[in-house]
Amino acid sequence: MRSLFFSFSLVLLSNLVLADGPADNLATTVRPVPPVGIELKPADRDELLAGLEKLNAKIQQIRDAKQPLGQALLPDVEIFSRAIRDAVAHRELFAERDINKARQVLAEGLARADALASGKAPWTTQKGLVVRGFRSRIDDTVQPYGMVVPESYAFSGATRHRLDLWMHGRGERSSEAVFIHERMNQVGRISPSDTLVLHPYGRYCNAFKFAGEIDVLEALRHARTQYRVDNDRVSVRGFSMGGAGCWQLAVHYPDLFFAANPGAGFSETPEFLRTFQNETLDPTWYEEKLWQMYDCTGYAANLFNLPTVAYSGELDKQKQAADIMEQAMQQEGLRLTHLIGPQTKHTLHPDSLQLIERKLASLARVGRDRLPETIDFVTYTLRYNKSFWLTVTELDSHWEKSTVRGGLQGQGNTVRLSVAGVNGLRIELPAGESPFDPRHPVNLELTVTGAGGAGEGFSQTQTIVGPQPESDRSWVCEVYRDGSTWKLGGRPTTGLQKRHALQGPIDDAFMDRFILVEPTSPAAHPAIDAWTRAEFQRLVTEWRRQFRGDAIVRRDVDLTDEEIANCHLILFGDPSSNSVLGLIADKLPIGWNDKTVTVGKQQFDAEHHAPVMIYPNPKNPNRYVVLNSGFTYRTFAYLNNARQVPKLPDWAVIDVRTPADSLWPGKVVDANFFDESWQLR
């Protein structure tokens, strides 16, 4: 056992030297991520392509048969096809041994296709290691995840089982084929008794951020349809890059899990890059604001409601992640359980792992507290706006710290909350969960602190008589702030308002279903035409390389009403070249015609300047339009996961005379956020 851990440690350390050396701080010389794989021998290439053709024919046969079982489980087969397709087409087999792995992956796909074509699916009742797949809402691609099904698991009966999410470490060579093979053959770092373990792919190597984050949640949702998961006994765990993913999911979704167990990794951007990467940082003001999307230190108070057991090796530089979280939690009055592997570098110490498992087993027996009387909630964005019975519906200003603290007092039929930076909230207690006397209304006592420019000492309390609990013992109450007064109900609709999943920044559009809309006419100016088409192609290419997806592309003339209703639209071109953009250009807060780009009182010549922005679609304000941008971090950020954060806010103006590079799409001459009503600040 100890030799196994030692070997694993050496592998991790060798990968770290490759991935995080001083050369990775040079934005002018960026190595490719993923690296270029080996060139296949003609015989190996022909063999894999012949097998892939055979597999695709069987998949099409299942598709054409339109049998319910086949349609429901087709992603479990398609994951093997897509893995081999991309491995061969994009040179993502990196060593001779990977060719044999690809053969095994292909063989499993063929076996599943044969079984499913005959109406059978033996892998759905398989114990031990099994790879599953789901179709992503974001881009319709099939995404894999691994399951470890314990021998004690019964596929029938009423028993629900604990499930541990385990996030993997950084692997620049972890293509789908490599990941699937690993999940077919390796149990992994943890295997608690009587526990389902879900290994999300998380879209490769992006630290489970953006589409990777959504894929973790979708994989969990899919697993719940396939296995009898106890929703009150789901934990989130991970090591190295997976430890970073664990911190992120823990602070952003504290009500989903009974426990969090992050190991190593990173928990914020600036101090980690200074400490671990020795990087000299020179961020723009809006980059610093946008660090708050994934910097977990600012969300540390959310762990008040989530038992957390952190782990670090005593000699591991990535111990910094837990150390800085420990400091952030101390500022919130919380004491972090932080286990240290003695004289250990970047690996799990076996004795520490045993102690972790004992602690988690004890917490699993208690399970998740579905309705805590007291909550402590922090957010900087409405993307992350929920904790148990509380949903924050409006903020005073995005990317500033906003808090809600307090709880339910059943005996007094009172909800007492202290809020800062929050202008709207909703409390929802489901049927049977209300602790209140159903014969009387519930008082909502709200104390606003440090708001309205009145300084840290400001405090104002208002009591609202809320609705009476319903006879099914449910209770729902929504309030909003009108000036200095709180009012019952949702805010009357008076125009656009930033709200959950419609709050920006640009990168937010790529966390839900989106379509790239390609122009069919030339832009008004050659430089803009060349730049917008290059940015379009970059997104198509990099979405596959970095987010392991096939972007859905439509020509502007082919876009349908259904797609406008259900998808964010990523529009490339200018109002002359893209007809969809042309139809809405006069309804956007940034003006753009063939002469000028107008931002408030500023004007930029349209011959060499183009806006990038995110905004509610004037044709469907429940979805975004994005102009001329994909995800905003570029190739320099691929070298270190802590850099993979938004680089641009809600809008920017780009001077295309400065060529795009590994950091920026051109020269950013101005950039900012829209206000809470989606207007220019």
Report on the structure:
The chain has 681 residues and is an alpha/beta fold. Among the domains are: 386-488, no CATH class; 506-672, no CATH class. The chain contains 15 helices and 28 strands. A seven-stranded mixed sheet has the order 20-19-21-26-25-27-28. It has a six-stranded mixed sheet with strand order 1-2-4-3-5-6, with helices on both faces. A hairpin with a 2-residue loop joins strand 10 (386-387) and strand 11 (390-395). The longest helix is centred in the N-terminal third of the chain and has 24 residues, at 42-65. The termini are far apart.
Uncertain segments: 1-19
Relative helix content: 25-40%
Determine the N-to-C terminus distance: 59 Å
Overall 3D form: globular
- Share of residues in strands: 15-25%
Average pLDDT value?
Answer: 95
Number of helices: 15
What is the β-strand count?
28
Q: For the report, how would you describe the main beta sheet?
A: 7 strands, mixed
CA radius of gyration: 26 Å
Question: What class would the helix/strand composition place it in?
Answer: alpha/beta
Q: Order of strands across the widest beta sheet?
A: 20-19-21-26-25-27-28
Signal peptide: 1-19
InterPro entries: AB_hydrolase_fold, Peptidase_S9_cat, Plant_Biomass_Hydrol_Est
Organism: Rosistilla ulvae
Keywords: Signal
